[in-house]
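REQUEST ID: PR-0412
SUBMITTED BY: lab tech R.K.
PRIORITY: routine
TASK: structure prediction, single protein chain
INPUT:
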Amino acid sequence: MALKNHIPNAITSCNLLSGIVGLYFAFKGLPEAAFLCMLAAAMFDFLDGFAARIFKASSPIGGQLDSLSDVVSFGVLPAVMLSVHSLNPLPLLIAVFSAVRLAKFNIDERQHSSFLGLPTPGAALLCGALATYCGARTESLLALLFSPWWAVALLAAAICVLLVCELPFFSFKGLGKKAEWPENIKLPFLASMLVAIAVLTIVLGWHWSAIPFGIATCYILENLVFALIKA
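STATUS: complete
OUTPUT:
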């Protein structure tokens, strides 16, 4: 087998390694370092698919390794981060529902250009950014809102439901291709939210994790609004 055929799997392994190292930092009480590992895992998760297409080196093993890596990096890691931050074991259920969501995605042929249920990276981004922001800004409004155990439990329950529900969530795959509304606004949405939240973060002096938290929150809310409109 040519060396290039191993490149996508090597990148996927970096995704898994990032998630494992992130767990180490999470258990050490270092949420910011753990979240940076999660973001690194997301980068490797994007690059492995890109490399597989470039080198035409996709394989069944690569698909299985990708799912296993995602369970760790976007299921177990965010669940542990939120649980350690809140001293609450209930967010650990997010890891279980993330695994179910990934298994469902692997066998559901309806999910190509869009998703049914909240994709695991979106849920991971929300949990990881929340734990990081609350840890860095302990006196902030967000930290106060999620200081009660029941508030974190409700958030975890909502995320678990969204992970396995049948509500449509748009993806950013195939940007530039002709698509129906609301797919045709996904790039302007991402750009506008990124700029707006980044400006607010700089002006108001928020911690940088407010940017991914805001983007993940807006992504979820927008898809829920569109689902209600189309219902």
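NOTES: Residues 180 and 186 are 11 Å apart (CA to CA).
REVIEWED BY: pending
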